[in-house]
Fold this protein.
Amino acid sequence: MHAIKVTDKIYWVGAIDWNVRDFHGYSTNKGTTYNAFLILDKKIALIDTVKKEFYPEMLSRIKSVIDPQKIDLIISNHAELDHSGSLKAAIADIKPEHVYASTLGAANLKAHLGEDLPVEIIPNGGSLDLGEDSLTFIESRMLHWPDSMICLLKKANILFCNDIFGMHYASSYRFDDEVAERDWLYEAKKYYANIILPYSKIVTAFLGQVTKLGIKPSVICPDHGPIWRKDPERIVNLYAEFAAQKNRNKVIVIYDTMWGSTEKMACAVTDGLISAGVEVKQMSLHAAHRSDAATELLDAAGLILGTPVLNQEIYPSLGDLITYFKGLKKQNLIGAAFGSYGWSDGAITGLETIMKEKLGVEIAAPCVKSRFVPTEEKLKECFELGRAVGLKILEKNK
């Protein structure tokens, strides 16, 4: 396998994972890449490695450029195993002079790969002289692990940023100008919604710090997805937009159903929202994955949940969704709950309480409950629930 030239002195030597479909709980229907980069200078550096199973692919790409044992330094920007899983094997084969990570990165690498791992700490703000150029290191804690850091190749003005500014997207192309925006934009949004969203305040502060330091890279090299060389500001601006959580007049109606009653109610709720003049995305958990629902929620102002009652509890798929959404900490939501039941309706009231207390949703209308199949009167109540939520959002976003 062959390396891909990024510049005259930088090569992509990562791996393409065409078949991964789950990444710690979110669906990766387009696969992913594990990007690693080789810097050729008087001191040769390898930036990050790849998931353990893909080590032979990375090594093969390195060999297409140089003898791997000519690598002097290995930099680990983040200890998660999709980037560090092959680090131990790489150290054994390459025998670098030094392996560097952040303070927390060194500790986490040893926790993952063994206390005998020969990793050294590079301090926040520290630098390494490569000969003609140098690397400067900046901690990017909680983007998205406590150990995360970025490094800037100073003269070339190229940023190696690990998980931030990335996406899970497998492609035969390596660069943003080779892939149509329509093909990557959803995956960039999905990546932010499912991984970075809980740290949005940190993203805003981090982008401010980068601006204050005068960093405006000509190329951004993330560890997943395309390399940003044509328009690196595009992804930076998208992150600023996502982090601000400026919601559109959009509502997500998410539900599950056993015998179709809750689905009938969901359709009536959606009609009510449309009548109010807001954008609606209706999603059945029979058909939609939790991570796709999270992606749609990223720029939504409203969340309405519907559940059948099973054993006096909300339906299991709704419980899964709520646990997932709670961790993502989406802000500024308006919504409501609805559902169908047979002989006990307490779970539907409970769903409304969970939305308010666990997800921080401002409840705009009391929950609607239908015993078994909804009557025309119940469907009208669902319509009015949707309309009330829609009008509340329009009023708030004036």
